Predict the structure.
Amino acid sequence: TLVKNLESKPVIRAYPTERISDVAKKLVDNNINHLPVVDESGKLKGIVTSWDIANAIAKGKTKLMDVMTKRVIIAREDEPVDLVARRIDKHEISGLPIVDKDNKVKGMITAEDISRLIGKEK
Ligand code: SAM
């Protein structure tokens, strides 16, 4: 199975200038843990997780720019899912933005999505 063949929810994005509280709201309202951070053209700039939001609050940071992770581990649409699973394991992360050749965010793939896929195969 390739990444592009996985069922996924519509991707919710965050923007570098957004307030931490608004980003927290997006995570909670959508019941998710990862948000890709994109610029106006949809290009990937970072990733933010609930851990980063907790960290922001702990340190009194108010700008997403200051707490998002800028070196993002990504997935590509044409990659096999098992390659992504190995990347998740290697880097001890649980969600990767799926980006195209222009670095535009097409979706997210999470450990949960992969578990669901394996569950169906059995
Ligand atoms: N860096 C701290 C440490 O090692 O103790 C905390 C790790 S924290 C649990 C997970 C971190 O991984 C978050 O800061 C998050 O932004 C980052 N992260 C999650 N998914 C990522 C991805 N696909 N690429 C790069 N970083 C990612």
